[in-house]
Amino acid sequence: MKRIYFTAVPLESNFVLDKKPVCPVNFTLDTGVREAAFPIVPIVDATLQPEDEGVIVAVRQQNSPRNKNMDILREELDALGKSNWTIRELTVPERQDKDLLLGLFTAMIDCLADDACYYACMTFGTKTYPVVLFSALSYAEKIRKNTQICGIYYCEIRREEGKPRQASLYDVSALFTLNSLVDLVAGMDCEDKDRMIRTMLEL
Fold first, then answer.
1. 119 and 182, same structural domain?
2. 7 and 90 share a domain?
3. 137 and 37: one domain?
4. How far apart are CA 175 and CA 152, in angstroms?
5. Whether residues 143 and 195 fall in one domain
6. How far is CA 83 from CA 48, 79, 117, in A?
7. 132-147 as b/e: b if 16+ CB within 10 A
């Protein structure tokens, strides 16, 4: 099985990541609570099996040739002791214009494959990153063959005296499925679609 993981990598000029306990909140991981700077690392650890092929897609803005946070991501993945993964690094300029964002979307869908499971972390990155990420995952789900969106995650980092102490990791995949739910209700032959979608959300 091919497993593809998306994560953004913060600019080193913004901050350098520290390890902290990453605690799943509304789901469980077989590996339990572990320390990590990148929340995607415990996901890789728990889901990437020896017979799998893993690809970690690292999206980062670039304002210098080297990014210490990128080095930290590689070190954390190496520390898992798994050899069946590769990193695909996508670098973009430090801008948010339309052409750049469309180029990022194109680069992200170039990383997709058929017969694959997808995981994504939206903790880091620009404010526009989750929009492009959701569009790429929608492409994976609707255009690629035999694919599954297995998890989308957001990590809430709690700080004490300005230092990270604990990270609460949430599975927010339900937000991604909202778009498909809206499409489903839009195609229904019913008068009160507002009531219909609220009823479906309660199920």
1. no
2. yes
3. yes
4. 9
5. no
6. 10, 10, 18
7. bbbbbbeebbeeeeeb
Residues 96 and 164 grouped into a single domain: yes
Q: How many other β-carbons are positioned within 10 Å of the β-carbon of residue 1?
A: 13
**How far apart (Å, rounded) are the C-alpha atoms in residues 3 and 65?**
29
- In terms of pLDDT, which residue wins out, 116 or 160? 116
pLDDT in tens, 56-81: 999 998 777 778 999 999 999 999 99
Residue range of the domain that includes 73: 2-171
- Give tens-digit pLDDT for 159-181: 777 776 778 999 999 999 888 88
How many structural domains are present in the chain?
A: 2
The sign of the CA dihedral 20, 21, 26, 30 is: positive
Beta-strand runs (E) in the chain: 2-9, 20-24, 34-36, 53-61, 85-92, 116-121, 147-160, 163-171
CATH code where residue 96 lies: 3.40.50.10640
Counting Cα atoms < 13 Å in the Cβ hemisphere of 138 gives 15
